[in-house]
Amino acid sequence: MKKTFISLCLLYAIAPIEAFAHQKSGFFIEGGFETGLLQGTENKEIPIKKVHNTYEDYFPTSTIARNSSNLFTDSQEISKLKFSTSRPIKVTLDNHKKQVVVENYLPYNLNNVRLSFKDALGNLVSLGILETIPKHAKILLDQSYFQNISLINPNASYLDFQATSTQKSDTSTQNLLEKLQNTTTNLEVSYVNQPTDFQSEFCKDKNCSFTPFTETTAKEFTNLLLNLASVIDSKSWHDNIINAPFDFSDKAMPDRNGKVPTGSKTISPQDIIEKLRKDMGLDISVLTSNSGFSHWAGAKAIAQAGSPPNANAKMAVNEKGINPNTFVDRNNKSNNRNKKPEPHSPNAYSLSLGISPLLKAYATAKGYANGGNMADQHVPSPYQPKNNTTLRSDGIPYDVCSSHKDNFPKFTNSVYPTCSNVPAGFVGITYEVWKQLINQDKLPINFLDLNNQKNYLNPLEFPNTLFGAVKESLLISSATTSGVSSVLQKFKAPILGANAKIGYQHYFNNLIGLSFYGVAKYNYSKINAKEVQQIGYGGGLDVLLDFVTTYAKSKNSSKKRFASSFGVFFGARGIYSNYSPSKTFKKPLKNTLNVHAVGGFSYRYKHSKYSVGVSVPLLRNRISLSYNDSHLVFLEDPNHFNVFFNYGWVF
């Protein structure tokens, strides 16, 4: 009963509408084609490759030889030199003569060496590459030859310059410069022929005298200091000092067990490392062979620390003390000063040749006194005289087994073979490490290959060095970089598609009506091989104005039936659109919402409906789509409208 009542109510509600509905009213469906114009810009990214070549000033051997001279000549010229253990290839500016000065204190010819400097920001900038730096040579090159010379601070010191190997350097040059990079202790050395202050302080003997530097003694002393600095800066020397199983002191002599008397002041290993590695100015001189130490038949050396502390320290060694034959044999191995003592010989260790005098002098120059095992050794001899005096001598090892038998230090490159044979003091450790580094070929100067170097300063040996260009441009690197170049171009392209509508149209009379509908559309365009896809959907309302409406008589009834109509329509629709650069409408999508004004002509014959019109976006939307190699930008605005042609059916 309830269902029947509801049905009757609906029937009575609809009946009046049906009774008074105009014949042109009804549901409709239509669809068709549409076209328009896309207009905008394409920012196309074109792949490009650029080759970047880097050139440096390159000075060939001919230029170097023409502008070089011997570094060590006579004693007067040698006394004007200042040498640095951290910069054995010393580069300075002579701004008065407008020259770049390169001094090679090494006994080796170097090949394809790059000279660099620090600019105002601390960056390392290449000055140029020298094909050859002759051994012990002084090179004078005009500053105008160097393109980067203006970047150098006019007050730059030699510490602002560096000499490094290049890919074109030979193996010996690369190995040598790599070894020198590990030397950071900077001894600023001056060659002094006659140090008068030594006369009063140390040379009280009438026979104490100095001899001026010769080319040979200057070279030998320089080589020794280079190796000494390398030893002091080595990891092996550091580790052996840190792990020394005995006391260090310059106030008290340790006993054979390496211990100083109770209450005596000791020096920490870390303090020794820091002090001996500290930068220092050093005046060096050469003692005559018979100076002062008439009882000492071998190498001799004396020194004094700087006074005041910021003054240069002083060191003098006799010719035998700097002669490599004193401490290097034919196999390039240091002589073993710990010789097996002869039976019943109390003086077996009294002679200490080799580098020991130099090491004692270095410790003294650093400010250590002679009262302990820093600037001396003086270990009690196992062969004591019978007169109750203690005989001390150099070269005798400590026996620390009583205190370190169970905890004897063991580490890589240890120079402590056993607890009963421990090198004594700073001199003993440094001497043994020096021997070790020679055998490992880790020192910059190898005394056995010094005679194998060519003499580039002799024009008779190298006549071609008298000719040739001053410098060349050397291609040192070539790099290819990939990038893109953006090209902006305008485009105009048609857009084609289809649309479909479904809705209801209601006429109030023959002239006027309204249309309510939903719409969906798809459009496609191709711009310079780039695809643009659009899907839109929304709804709208149109006003229908039919100027002509015709009716036909029905055969079976006197009632007229609708035949045809012609008119116009106008209205608005809201469209939500998705733009995509791919057919699958995957991201990235560009979504827009717009209001379109719609207008056009409509013709209807019975149930068939034909429409032609335009759809004009009223809002201005900027559409941007990205592709692999380009970027499209176009507008959705009143200037870019669609024209559609539709066919429909009115039910």
Automatic annotation (TrEMBL):
Annotated region (Disordered), positions in chain: 320-349
Keywords: Signal
Domain of life the protein comes from: Bacteria
Keyword Signal on entry: yes
Signal peptide residue numbers: 1-21
Designated name of the protein: Outer membrane protein
